[in-house]
Amino acid sequence: PSVGVGHRVNHPPRGAPPTVLSWPSRVRDPDLLTRLPNEYVDAAAVGACLPLLALADVATGDEFFMDYRYELGLDDAERAGLPDWYVSVSSGAPRSEEFSERTA
Prior knowledge:
This protein is of the alpha+beta class. It has helices spanning 30-33, 76-80, 96-103; strands at residues 20-22, 25-26, 48-49, 52-54.
C-alpha cells in the first residue's frame, strides 16, 4: 500500500490555521522505499519525500491544511494574479524551516 496523502492536503481557507507542515526528508529504509509513491519521478529523486508533521493532535475526520506559500518571491502585480481561493497565511504560522531551527 502507498503512504502518499499529499494530494489530500489543502491550503487553509480564510481564518483557518495550517494543521500540518512539510518536512523535507530522504528515506533510506529499503522496505519503506518500496511503499513511497515515487514511481514516476527521476531515479535521482527516489527516496526524497515531504512527510507531513501534524501541528496538533489529529482526530478522525480532521482536514489537513498546509500553507502553500504561493506568495513567496512574488511582487505585488504577481500576487494580484493568485487564485481567488488563495489567502496569505499569517506570518506567525509555523514554517518547516523555523521548526527545524528550534529543534536542532
